[in-house]
Amino acid sequence: MSVVYIALGSNLNCPAEQLRMAISALRQLPLSKVVAVSSFYGSKPLGPQDQPDYVNAVLCLQTELAPLALLDELQRIENQQKRVRLRRWGERTLDLDILLYDNLIQQTERLKLPHYDMQNREFVIIPLLEIAPSLVLPCGTNLVELARKFSDHKMEKF
């Protein structure tokens, strides 16, 4: 089984409830098992600031699904929860991103592994650190060291 880390985010239609529903759907994935889920964190939007704040989390999944098959399942869950893509980094009911898939480094048109910008996002690194404090990224960077640059984050944990 591969170990995968997935970022969850929502800022529409009761965001915390959207994350809870997504976690429930992820627990139902075939050939997969949810191993850990971080706390939920409130964060400011990454993109346009004329949208509500986000609720974010990171989930660890063990799966036998191949990366693109897993991506298809994540997009199916997003669609079930009425995900609409109106603008880049805009508001959404649910966003599910594969952060890491084992130590795989891959770039395709549909999927970049590790996630292309995860190292610059406190709303990813801090929840990831919570559930995988000894993690070393495929590039060799220790997660604890990476998280130091976010030590003064202002995200609310709930």
TrEMBL record:
UniProt GO molecular function = 2-amino-4-hydroxy-6-hydroxymethyldihydropteridine diphosphokinase activity
- SUPFAM superfamilies, alphabetized: 6-hydroxymethyl-7,8-dihydropterin pyrophosphokinase, HPPK
CDD domains reported for this sequence: HPPK
Q: Report the residue ranges that make up the 7,8-dihydro-6-hydroxymethylpterin-pyrophosphokinase domain in this protein.
A: 88-99
Gene3D superfamilies documented for this protein = 7,8-Dihydro-6-hydroxymethylpterin-pyrophosphokinase HPPK (3.30.70.560)
Q: Does the keyword ATP-binding apply?
A: yes
InterPro entries assigned to the protein according to its UniProt record, in alphabetical order: Hppk, Hppk_sf
Note the Pfam families from the entry: HPPK (PF01288)
Q: What class of enzyme is it?
A: transferase
Does Nucleotide-binding appear among the keywords? yes
Which pathway features in its UniProt record?
A: Cofactor biosynthesis; tetrahydrofolate biosynthesis; 2-amino-4-hydroxy-6-hydroxymethyl-7,8-dihydropteridine diphosphate from 7,8-dihydroneopterin triphosphate: step 4/4
> Which EC number applies?
2.7.6.3
What keywords are annotated for this sequence in UniProt? Answer: ATP-binding, Folate biosynthesis, Kinase, Nucleotide-binding, Transferase
Q: What does this protein do?
A: Catalyzes the transfer of pyrophosphate from adenosine triphosphate (ATP) to 6-hydroxymethyl-7,8-dihydropterin, an enzymatic step in folate biosynthesis pathway.
Say which family it is in.
Answer: Belongs to the HPPK family.
This protein is called: 2-amino-4-hydroxy-6-hydroxymethyldihydropteridine pyrophosphokinase
Provide the species name.
Seminibacterium arietis
